[in-house]
Amino acid sequence: MVEIETLEQLTLKFGHAEDYLRNLFEKATGREISLTVTDNSTSMLSVKTKGKAVSVRLHRIFLEAGANVVDEIAEFIKKGGGKTPHIRDFIRGKRDILNKKVPRRLNAVTLGRHYDILNIYESINREYFEEKVSASITWGTKSPRRAVRRRTLGSYSSHSHMIRINPILDIERVPPYFVEFIVYHEMLHACLGVKNKNGRRSVHSKEFRELERRFRDYEKAMAWEKKSRI
Ligand SMILES: [Zn+2]
């Protein structure tokens, strides 16, 4: 008991880790939970039950929720519904954050040598996401040439809520639609969240791949990536 309390205090202080929340929900409901933390403010909490599995989608603000809110979510999952006064209060208190459409620019470098990444982000947010994505975006830092071969063109961190785009894309040779595609891909991650099941993360789900194909220059971007070997 004492251990659990200590753990809870610690995680409350730093925000709930996804694994911690998922475990807590599994304990409270006695069911296997697949948890997805999203940035979708039109659906703050949704619970789908399919056979034995329960799939929970939760807005990222709940990572900072207190114990009464988290307990209420667990009850909600367990019963498949019910009254949610704590959850409602909590959402109301976060309204300012939720309504903020302009991404935080703190520590973000958006104007590159060739591309303005914030400009690209904002137009994609309008065109594909109804301006619902609130993650920050920045050009990443250049990694030394000898560094890892693995090419990461973009990344999204649900902890810092930050999209990073590799500055190797900030050159004229890289067509705009390709940079846009990489930004779109990372924004999809921010929007859909990362599914966490049994502590394993599945980032490119079937749903993700389907939405990815909706990008207007999807085929072109794929073809360019293959050809350029960037
Ligand atoms: Zn990805």
Quick rundown:
The protein has nine helices and eight strands.
**DSSP helix fraction:** 40-55%
Q: Give me the secondary-structure category.
A: alpha/beta
- The fold-level CATH name of the largest domain is Zincin-like
Q: What summary fits the major beta sheet?
A: 5 strands, mixed
Q: Give the low-confidence spans.
A: 1-14
Mean pLDDT: 81
Can you identify the CATH superfamily of the largest domain?
Metalloproteases ("zincins"), catalytic domain
List SSEs in N-to-C order. HHEEEHHHHEEEHEEHH
Question: Beta fraction of the residues?
Answer: 15-25%
Radius of gyration, rounded?
A: 19 Å
Overall, the morphology is elongated
Instruction: Tally the structural domains.
Output: 2
Describe what this molecule looks like in 3D:
With 230 residues, the chain is of the alpha/beta class. It has two domains: 2-98, Zincin-like; 101-228, Zincin-like. The protein is built from nine helices and eight strands. A five-stranded mixed beta sheet has the order 2-3-1-7-8. Strand 2 and strand 3 (53-59) form a beta hairpin. Helix 6 crosses helix 7. Residues 1-14 have low confidence and may be disordered. Zinc ion binds next to helix 7.
Descriptive terms for the model:
single chain; 230 residues; alpha/beta; Zincin-like; 2 domains; five-stranded mixed β-sheet; three-stranded mixed β-sheet; 9 helices; 8 strands; 43% helix; 17% strand; elongated; disordered N terminus; binds zinc ion
Question: Which helices and strands, and how do they pair?
Answer:
Blueprint: H1 2-14, H2 18-29, E1 33-38, E2 45-50, E3 53-59, H3 67-79, H4 85-93, H5 95-99, H6 117-129, E4 136-139, E5 154-157, E6 162-165, H7 176-192, E7 194-197, E8 200-202, H8 206-212, H9 218-228
Parallel strand pairs: 1-3, 4-6
Antiparallel strand pairs: 1-7, 2-3, 5-6, 7-8
Helix pairs in contact: 2-3, 6-7
